[in-house]
């Protein structure tokens, strides 16, 4: 019988042993690092009672018992269960339950997004971004946070992106885009009417347009030069938060940046070292 099941089968336990077992079951992730004295204090028991319970469960003492529990905790952490992307946790979940479910949702989302990556489209998107004189990022809401993170990373490879919605000057930014630039639209729903209008205008101007979306039927798709899809099991409105879609977008954008970085890997590393030296030992270093 598994150790957890044995802890739940408490017919032969004393009152103190039941109290210890219940505490362990309720705080399982903490047990591998707990000391016997701390466990005794938290369960209002004694060292000898904890050792006696350990031996009753078939272990030589608390150390061996704790090692067995650590294996269970490790296995739980590394086993991924499918989680509802819209309501990944419930009111009765413990903080440990919520943490595990959010970890499972994140892993499942990234795995799903990775399976959907079209490597040919990814290469073409990177080609466009590398060749662009300026990169205009169109995004709103939570997605704009992902876009800002991407913008910040691009600085590390000497590429500078512009947030087209920075001061709600979207149309002004759109009309200033030239053929040597590119426009990158990010919208999970793929339904942003002003974007469709702008993309149609950019297409007529033969300006490269990239679209990252979770909607293959988006009205924006026909006006994009290149489309990257990441379809998650997330509803438009009936959800606690945009956990899954934003995790997927972050993964895709990180992947794009990483592929861009590899295009001139050695140069980027030398540039990184040079910039670090300037900021730590050169004119940009903090004065002592």
From TrEMBL:
The record's section on Pfam families has: HTH_6, SIS
Instruction: Using the record's annotation, list all stretches that form the SIS domain.
Output: 125-266
- The source's domain of life comes to Bacteria
Keyword Membrane in annotation:
no
Q: Which InterPro entries match?
A: Homeodomain-like_sf, HTH_RpiR, RpiR-like, RpiR-like_SIS, SIS_dom, SIS_dom_sf, WH-like_DNA-bd_sf
UniProt KW keywords: DNA-binding, Transcription, Transcription regulation
In what residue span(s) does the HTH rpiR-type domain sit? 1-76
Where exactly are the transmembrane stretches of this chain?
A: none
Q: Name one GO molecular function term.
A: carbohydrate derivative binding
tRNA-binding found in the keyword field: no
Q: Which BP terms does GO give this entry?
A: carbohydrate derivative metabolic process
According to UniProt, the name of this protein is: RpiR family transcriptional regulator
User: What is the scientific name of the source organism?
Assistant: Enterococcus florum
